[in-house]
Amino acid sequence: MSWRWQRRLRYWLQGEERARLLREEMQLHLDLKTQQLMEEGMTEADARGAARRQFGNTTLQQEESRGAWIARWLSDLLQDTAYALRTIRRQPGFSALAALSAALGIGACSLLFGIANFALFRPLPVNHPSRLVNISGKDLRQGRVGRSISYPDFEDLRQAQSLQGMTAYFPFMPAGISSSGEPRRYWGSVVTANYFDVVRPAFAVGRGFDPARDDTEGAAPVVVLSYPLWQSRFAGDRALVGRTIELNRRKVTVVGVTGPGFRGTESLFFADFWLPFSMLDSLAEAGLGGDRLRNRDSQWLSAVGRLRDDASEKSAASEIDVMGRRLRAAYPASNDDRGFYVERAGQVNPGIRSMVLVFFAMLLAVAVLVLCTACANVANLLLARASARQKEIATRLAIGAGRGRLVRQLLTESLMLALLGGMAGYGMARLGAAAVGWSPIPLSLPVDLSISLDYRVMLFSVALAVLTGVIFGLAPALRATRPGLTGALKDERVYMGGSRYFGMRNLLVIGQVAICMVLLICSGLFIRSLRSAGNIDTGMAHRNVLLMAFDPSLNRYSPSETRRVVDAILAGAGALPGVESASLSSSAPLNLEGTQNSFAAGNRETPVRADIYSIAPRFFETFGIRLIEGEDFRPGVPADDIAIVNQALSDQAFPKENPIGRRIQYLGRTVRIVGLVATAKSRTIGEEPHPCLYFPIARDLRGNDSLTGITLAVRTRGDPAGYVTLLRQTVRNIDPTLPLFDIRTMDAQLSKALFLPRMAASLFGLAGFLGLLISTVGIYGVISFAVARQTKEIGIRMALGARRVQVLGMVLRQGLALTLAGSAIGLGAAMALSRMAASLLYGVSPTDPFTFVAVPMALASIAVVACLVPARRAATLDPIRALRCD
Amino acid sequence: MGKNDLLPGTLDMMVLKTLTRGTLHGYAIAQLLKQLSADILQVEEGSLYPALQRLELNGWIEGEWGVSANNRRARFYKLTPAGRKTLAAETARYRQMTGAIARVMGMA
């Protein structure tokens, strides 16, 4: 019935005009009626009254007539929205405060949801992502899933009937690119040639690999680049496709560039290029290839399959399960405890997913606490305002407004405020996401932090805002419209709602203060911990040390070439003016990715675990680690069977003995200890003394670990950052195609190692600061409100002789009572919670007395200041005027 | 009688019925309803106006501004063909309903 709706719309659009005409009609009716009644002998006044009585409630009839024009709720909604906007504009201070409170809470929650959404729920940007499944290994003995799989197993599994295709790839492949500028190391994947046919991402230019050719060993080398790499390094040159670039010192033809969103199929990590398996052979120097393609024990691949149209994730899982069982029977030696696990692709590796979830749950708890304090504030401000509008509301109830209608209107207002807050909160979440992208993470793996907030996050923000508006607007709205008309109309505000009214507001403030106390104590503990972590003696002199990494395996040198290049770099760096000493190491200290291994010492039964370092001479001098006894490695001396140990290792393996000259068994070799050094921090700042075992790097120059390469360390006179260009030049003179990466000062390395405590401190610090801000506003609001309501009482007291100081004290006492109650609850909760955080605290007890005294005192003094403003207002009241006040 | 004591829909039907006598303004419709029902049906007079709005929106009556007997601007309503049809249908339905009710009440 569209004509009817058209008419409705027209009526409604002409609403003002029609309403005026309707009033005229009704007025005519009343006039005619009055006239008639007067003719029947009534006085004019009586007649007018009788006419009105018979007519009924004029306003209501008008409203109902309007109701015929357009759905009532819709017109009400529009009216309420307009009214709410007007109120918000009229009280900008109040509204900004309320919306800001909501924004802070919603922003924090949205950011976390955004990160979780990004890491856990985002579908891959490919054609039909829901048809892609991830196939990983499952350790049947430990029940762990998410393991890598071997190449022969992959070859068997790819026969599965429920899959159209299956591809395997190695996701952590570093490669140096030296065309178009400074040589740099990038991270990519080595994939079977059908990778792009299975995954089906969009292509910006060109194509993927050709399974017919690119799987063949020795085929012409090809590469697919990611969009960001193409843009940043090759300026988005479309003509690049078909040309060659220099990758690991060989010419490789670019066949395609993927679309902008695609960064590979490994969640949380990104790839910048893809190489086909045919190049494995030439990548063998990087520690791949060789018998890895034939060995079922060598598990190193991730795998993704695309489901056939008639297959489901479940049917694929059961088919692959059966295949796994067959493999177990056929190859008991290697596949004895191996099964396979199938799930939708693009999710965080199931092996670490629960850890990631717990991490997010903890962060979310903090954000929800902030949101709760924020919302308590909004509720409190609304309550205060509703009580100030008591008279207006009572008047409206008296002239026939329904309670439901008024509640709806008040709710519309709180919703509008919450939605404003939600929008601002979403904006804050976007800023936060960008900030996460810049944060340094102490890993050299290609971790993907390019968090983008999609429409789901926006929906989340809006939903959260609506929830906030309803939950925290409903109580004030119901309270404000509670019938109690006569009192309110007579301005007897003091008696309205009674003490319970105050009770709720007080409870909200107490809750706020308690939450704020917990957050502040936590942030206090973490900040103290960060400070003491910064003061921890690392056992090194970390000033004026510059670190940079290079990976000779990227350039596929022969062993003799490697030796020549590495020696030349070390010698060149050591000879630079201003360089006091230079050395090499398999991994820098305070890096989480070093090697750990066990060795047998003398006659001890149990092997000792130690961090293993391969180092060049002068390592200890360069890092400022004290040599206690014995001697350093010497250049040019054959060094097959000697090692240096640290004090912690000596204490553990040779308690109360001198380790020099003792022998240990390591990987089947007998090694003689020639030196003893002081214990320095090895992996993290907070660790207990770690046993460390240092071997001469000359033994395995290739770098046993192609993720971190070889680290060159130089101790400089003066600011080490100034030596970067010089060192780059030195390396370029030796080989212009060798990429340098992870260039940083030791100080920067140190602050990276403080990543966790710093993150915790800044997270809680921010949350605590927000909580404090919000609670201060809350206390201030409640006390000002109380003073406003007690104006008359204060006036009476003053008239009866109360001095100003006494009035001041009275108001302050009210505020402090609330603060103390909240603080007590908060302190109790903080005691219980901080114990759980003990493992994250360095050099600070979870019940650190300083924090537990200083924070409450600080909170109390801020509360006093917040109360002082309204208290002074109360104390300076003019009693005469206060008494006259309603 | 209060305004809620009428059977639902009957006010609309009665308004349509009064308009079969010609074009009338609101007050006249109210007077006529009162006279015809011999003062038994005392509708809250104001509730006539929402009813008129409803009927007009449905296209059953048409309002037009004219001048009343005492020279004031008044809105006169007249039945449309659609309204006539609706009235006939409603009347039939009403007869059926009251007949049925009467039978039940007579039996008991």
Secondary structure blueprint with pairings:
The complex is a heterodimer of chains A (886) and B (108).
Chain A: H1 2-13, H2 15-39, H3 44-55, H4 58-69, H5 72-90, H6 92-121, E1 132-139, E2 144-147, E3 149-150, H7 151-157, E4 163-177, E5 184-191, H8 195-199, E6 203-206, H9 211-214, E7 222-225, H10 227-234, E8 244-247, E9 250-258, E10 273-276, H11 280-283, E11 299-307, H12 313-330, H13 332-335, E12 338-344, H14 350-388, H15 390-398, H16 403-438, H17 455-480, H18 485-489, H19 498-535, E13 545-550, H20 559-575, E14 579-585, E15 595-601, E16 608-615, H21 619-623, E17 627-630, E18 642-646, H22 647-653, E19 663-666, E20 669-677, E21 692-696, E22 710-716, H23 724-734, E23 740-745, H24 746-753, H25 755-789, H26 791-799, H27 804-836, H28 849-875, H29 879-884
Parallel strand pairs in A: 5-10, 7-9, 16-21, 18-20
Antiparallel strand pairs in A: 1-2, 1-11, 1-12, 3-11, 4-5, 4-11, 6-9, 7-10, 8-9, 13-22, 13-23, 14-22, 15-16, 15-19, 17-20, 18-21, 19-20
Helix pairs in contact in A: 2-3, 5-16, 6-14, 6-16, 6-17, 14-17, 14-19, 14-25, 16-17, 19-25, 19-27, 19-28, 20-23, 25-27, 25-28, 27-28
Chain B: H1 10-18, E1 24-25, H2 26-36, H3 48-57, E2 61-67, E3 73-79, H4 81-107
Antiparallel strand pairs in B: 1-3, 2-3
